[in-house]
From TrEMBL:
SMART domains: AraC_E_bind, HTH_ARAC. It comes from the Bacteria. InterPro entries: AraC_E-bd, GyrI-like, Homeodomain-like_sf, HTH_AraC, Reg_factor_effector_dom_sf, SmbC-like. Residues 8-106 form the HTH araC/xylS-type domain. The keyword Transcription applies. This is GyrI-like domain-containing protein. Keywords: Transcription, Transcription regulation.
Length: 277
């Protein structure tokens, strides 16, 4: 768990400005620390230097754009993250061991292996089947209590149990449980994924570990199934539905809303909320 409030503030700043040429000095100043002290603190908390984290996020989020925005040119996407075409190709290949073009050609096939469950095979849904499960909605803002983790999504159930026990006095029949996942595990190393587990904060909540998940326009995939099938649903969204739909994903981060969970069978009903323009 990433518990340091200043480091979480820095991560939020990086994620919200990842398409800009942000510097370590700028982020340290945002958190009111010297570059040297802040850099040491960031590395101790996350296991990465600030520079390494910024570069990795740029490489992985731009790769995600290559995956879901197939009609956009590689040059346009590289510019979104502050790279010239030649510099981007070099940095991308160093990180992913494929050129951007090779990555774009192979990512659907790469996505057909589920890294969370013993590399199980994945059968993508058709565009038509996805469309039957998707609604376009405008969601409200959600003030939430949260905890941030870096690691495998496979550890979520353990973290959720501890989180709910810790905050049980704030849970009512109206509480919603949400999850914010920042990475696609077909792109990001499974042990480097960043995610927030959240619950709606009651009015007047005085806890410090709170923020607001911004609402707006979303494509919402209404998932009904078992935990092992969630990866398939996401990959169908990313590889099939988004590239073929008329919807454009925007630069907000998506999240999930848990509607129903059977802890015995692990049957779940979850809204997978993908931000669109």
């Amino acid at each position: 768990m990433i518990t340091n409030a200043y480091i979480n503030r820095a991560i939020d700043y990086i994620l919200n400005h990842i398409n800009e040429n942000i510097s370590v000095d700028e982020i340290a100043s945002h958190c009111n620390f010297s570059r040297y002290y802040f850099s040491r603190m960031f590395k101790a908390e996350t296991g990465e230097s600030v520079y390494e984290f910024i570069k990795r996020v740029k490489m992985e989020q731009s790769a995600f754009r290559l995956k879901v925005e197939k009609r956009r040119s590689i040059t346009d996407i590289s510019c979104d993250y502050g790279y010239s075409s030649s510099n981007y190709s070099s940095a991308f290949k160093q990180h992913h061991h494929l050129s951007p073009m090779e990555f774009r050609r192979s990512i659907t096939q790469i996505s057909l292996t589920n890294p969370l469950f013993n590399k199980a095979a994945v059968g993508l849904e058709s565009f038509e089947k996805c469309t039957q499960k998707i609604s376009i909605e405008v969601l409200e803002d959600y003030p939430v209590i949260y905890e941030r983790h870096k690691g495998s999504y496979g550890n979520l159930s353990v973290h959720w149990g501890a989180f709910q026990e810790k905050h049980k006095e704030h849970i009512t029949e109206l509480t919603l449980f949400l999850e914010r996942t920042y990475d696609d595990p077909s792109i990001t190393d499974i042990d480097e994924c960043l995610y927030d587990i959240c619950m709606t904060a009651p009015e007047g909540c005085q806890l410090k570990n709170t923020y607001v998940i911004k609402g707006g326009k979303f494509a919402i995939y209404h998932f009904k199934g078992f935990v092992k099938q969630i990866y398939t649903a996401y990959q169908s969204l990313f590889n099939v539905w988004l590239p073929q739909s008329s919807c454009e994903i925007d630069h907000r981060y998506g999240f999930e809303i848990y509607r129903k969970i059977d802890n015995g069978s692990m049957y779940m009903e979850i809204d997978l909320c993908i931000p669109i323009k």
